[in-house]
Amino acid sequence: MITAKEIRDMLVSAKRVAIFGHVRLDLDCFGAMFGAKFLCESLGTKCDMFANVPENSFLLNIFPKRFLKQKFDKNKYDLILVVDCNTLSRIDESFRSEAKGKNLLFIDHHAQNVIEDNAKFYVYPEKCSASIMIYELIEKYKIPLDATTATYIFAGLVGDTGRFLHTNTDESAFVCASKLTKVGADIQKVYDVVYRSLTMSQVRLRNFIFENLKSNGNVCYIIVSEKDLKKLKSTAEDLKMFIDDVNKVKDFDVVMFAYEVTHGEYKVSLRSKNGVVVSKIATKYGGGGHKMAAGFSLVGDKKSVAKKLKVICEEFYA
Ligand SMILES: [Mn+2]
Q1: pLDDT tier at 113 (50, 70, 90 boundaries)?
Q2: CA 133 to CA 284: how far, in whole Å?
Q3: 277: part of which helix (H) or strand (E)?
Q4: Confidence label for 50 from pLDDT (cuts 50, 70 and 90)
């Protein structure tokens, strides 16, 4: 593990930094990327952010698309900074092979399983978000934060703590929120975009989820195929918005959300409460994540995935 000072030296001495997050970006990933861009530029280093985001993603209402590049020319960069994940296998396929072999720096808060070549790691799984890690670096380097970047980091903090609801919410989350507010983070803007902008097709998707939930004991699961999403005029990103909603149901300790990301491949997101750990099961099936928010992938059609999930339901209490 490297130190905050070593990160500073790496960023200062780099000529141009390419910033990446994980595939299927979320609020924290974006918050950390935009925060990292501010960090690099404040240290006098040029940088570019790379991300593939669906045109209609709500995230773009906070994080402007004009700052995101899609074509990555590895020869232009002498350092690759990856935030909110700690292995190249989690970054978008279209960037992955190009990033291999370059100097890598990972800043992340997920449990680490792989050590990449040419990579330096700054990984603290106890941190509630990657955004707060970037914030703490900015603070450590005594760089004055602006209101725009504070808003980005606040969005990341809110995203990964579920608006200060999840068990990863700790004192530092509130301290950080307080400091971000002080420098002018636009809290209402973040909340309007994230919590007050449901479209009617998202409402229909939400109804679909609750009507089609299956359960086995205290575990519930839902499987949404590509076809279902198309019929509901929704995306996987829409779907992810409601996983915490299902986790509000008292009867269930574990929620499994399976959705088809590419034909015949399902991503399964897990959320839990009441102290039930889901990361072990995620790791068992080749995935990973946090104790109470993790995920893995399953291959098969809707029917066979349903069968597997029904069996997996029992494993949380084994
Ligand atoms: Mn995160």
Answers
A1: confident
A2: 28
A3: none
A4: very high
Q: How far is the CA of 275 from the centre of ligand 1 (A)?
A: 20
- 73 CA from centroid of ligand 1 (Å): 26
C-alpha of residue 289 to centroid of ligand 1, in Å = 10
SS3 state at 13: helix
For ligand 1, a single-atom ion, the residues with CB < 5 A are 28, 84, 130, 160
CA angle 166, 137, 154 (to 5 degrees): 40
Asked whether the predicted pLDDT for residue 317 surpasses 90, the reply is no
* C-alpha of residue 231 to centroid of ligand 1, in Å: 30
Q: Has domain 4-194 been given CATH number 3.40.50.720?
A: no
Residues 242 and 206 sit within 8 Å (Cβ to Cβ):
yes
Q: Would you say domain 200-315 falls under CATH 3.10.310.30?
A: yes
Over the chain, what is the mean pLDDT?
96
**What are the structural domain ranges in the chain?**
4-194, 200-315
> Tens digits of per-residue pLDDT, 187-240?
999 999 999 999 999 999 999 999 999 999 999 999 999 999 999 999 988 998
CA 290–ligand 1 middle distance (angstroms): 10
Beta strands in 144-253 (DSSP E): 214-216, 219-224
